[in-house]
Amino acid sequence: MYLMPIRKCTPAKIGINWIRTYSTNKDDDRSPLSGIRILDLTRIIAGPYCTMLLGDLGAEIFKIEKPGSGDESRNWGPPFLGDAKEAAYFLCVNRNKKSICVDLKKGKDIIYDLAKKCDILVENYIPGTLSRMGYGYDHIKHVAPHLIYCSLTGYGSEGPYAKKPGYDVIASSLGGLMHITGPKDGSPCKAGVAVTDIATGLYAHGAIMAALLQRMKTKKGQWIQCDLLSTQVASLINIGSNYLNAGKEAKRWGSEHESIVPYEAFKTKDGFMTVGAGSDLQFKNLLEKLEIAELQNDERFQSNTNRVKNRDELLLILRKKFKEKTNKEWNEIFQGASFPYGKINTIKEVFEDPHVQHVKLVREMDHPTIGKIKIVGPAVKYSYAKNDVRSPPPILGQHTHEVLQTILNYSEDTINNLRDENIIQ
């Protein structure tokens, strides 16, 4: 069973107004983060992706947005949906959250009050921005010493780039990803989705979970720093190791693999089929399926080392062979194969794929202004824990009144005054 927060003052024992006890609610017990509250000061992708994952696991997410405009990604379209013009971009990473509109310049007391009630604060402002407004870690830790404070930035809080704004495509440029992505003889390309943003959100998600576990032992909060550039450099894996240990500079390979042959997207009669033969046995099986088993006896292709050395000769043969049939025909021929294979799907084909449909990745839910919307649900399944789509992405300021009244116990008059003074929306 997980440990949930109980609001009770025990400062003599742990120095903060929190103790932990076991939940006896069966439904809460299935949600690993039920009872955990997150003060979400993030926008765009990396931060919202992180907090969405925590929300899937049951955390209560208070998404703080700028009155009038909110998270910038609300305006990143088309496409927009419904009369309220909700951006599909915003919808993809903001489920399971409560939108609270607070002017950060005027609403410090509100943010401090929420910090005292929360377990985690996540923000992705340029270093120094929140500190100038009184929301930096050094400020918050005095208000809420139990709080786990996670910063997602472009380049971290120190170094020559610390004050620069960071976007996924810039981090993937500086971090080498674009240098190794694209056609062999073509220009650098960015990935089709913001993979560096997503990876940073995943790093932050894991770091926050670890900090929660550590707080169970120490009863202390701490500051976590995640940044796009460090994430991207760490994600270079074998490419980074090749350079650091062998001095080998990387280059673009298109869909080919530098160290494994064959391993690429082959053009077929009506599309592309990706095949990877990571072992000699898999390569032998591929040749049998392609009905060119005689190549097994060719010394140039009998080991992966030889195939890498003689890639041009081998790929010339394989590419010609793949063009003889359609994706559907190759799919039927490759059934039961020991090597991995798959056709390159359009996005339409992805969501029509029988396996994607079988595992029910796509969820449908009711949005308060749009009606029915579809989102891609959690990618991780547990045998017992509940990891689920709980509520639709919120409309701007949808939960401001509710949270101030039920969580902070503000009176109706106080809330109305804050609204009249344009501190909240």
What does the secondary structure layout of this molecule look like, with pairings?
Elements lengths: L2 E5 L3 H4 L3 E5 L3 H5 L6 E5 L4 H11 L3 E6 L14 E2 L4 E2 H4 L5 E5 L6 H10 L2 E4 L5 H4 L4 H7 L4 E6 L14 H7 L20 H24 L3 E6 H7 L2 H10 L16 E5 L4 E5 L3 H10 L14 H6 L1 H12 L4 H7 L7 E3 L3 H6 L1 H5 L3 E6 L3 E6 L23 H7 L5 H9 L5
Parallel strand pairs: 3-4, 3-8, 4-7, 8-9, 9-10
Antiparallel strand pairs: 1-2, 5-6, 11-12, 12-13, 14-15
Helix pairs in contact: 3-9, 9-10
- Count of folded domains: 2
Strand content of the residues, in percent?
Answer: 15-25%
Tell me the helix content.
25-40%
Largest sheet: 6 strands, parallel
Q: Under the CATH scheme, which architecture of the largest domain would be assigned?
A: 3-Layer(aba) Sandwich
CATH superfamily descriptor of the largest domain: Crotonobetainyl-coa:carnitine coa-transferase, domain 1
Description:
Belongs to the CoA-transferase III family. With 425 residues, the protein is α/β, with parallel strands linked by helices. The chain contains 19 helices and 15 strands. The protein has two domains: 37-237 and 366-421, 3-Layer(aba) Sandwich (Rossmann fold); 272-343, 2-Layer Sandwich (formyl-coa transferase, domain 3), CATH 3.30.1540.10. The chain has helices spanning 11-14, 26-30, 46-56, 88-91, 108-117, 129-132, 137-143, 168-174, 195-218, 228-234, 237-246, 280-289, 304-309, 311-322, 327-333, 347-352, 354-358, 400-406, 412-420, and strands at 3-7, 18-22, 37-41, 60-65, 80-81, 86-87, 97-101, 120-123, 148-153, 222-227, 263-267, 272-276, 341-343, 362-367, 371-376. It has a six-stranded parallel sheet, sandwiched between helices. Strands 11-12-13 form a three-stranded antiparallel sheet, covered by helices on one side. Strand 5 and strand 6 form a beta hairpin. The model is unreliable at 1-24 (pLDDT under 50).
